Amino acid sequence: DQVRETSNFSDMLGKAVNSVKDVQQQAGALQTAYDMGDPNVDITRVMIAAQKSSVSFEALTQVRNRVVRAYEDIMNMPI
């Protein structure tokens, strides 16, 4: 039962990557709508979406860097 309740690391990482991808796509869609002159999209929404996209991508990059560093540390351990 407990195994089903907890998700493994790869699932969590996959969800994080998909979440970042979704945020980036939303920011891109808002940017495109603004560029096309959509009156329902103002520059404030576009800038906030762009910042959210940037911050989420930076956070994902930091997670990746830490995972790689941990892997390298494990691989360099003497047996």
TrEMBL record:
Please state the protein's primary subcellular location. other
Keywords attached to this entry: Bacterial flagellum, Cell projection, Cilium, Flagellum
MF-aspect GO terms: cytoskeletal motor activity; structural molecule activity
Keyword presence, DNA-binding = no
Taxonomically, the superkingdom here is: Bacteria
* Cell location: Bacterial flagellum basal body
Recorded protein name is Flagellar hook-basal body complex protein FliE
Q: Which gene encodes it?
A: fliE
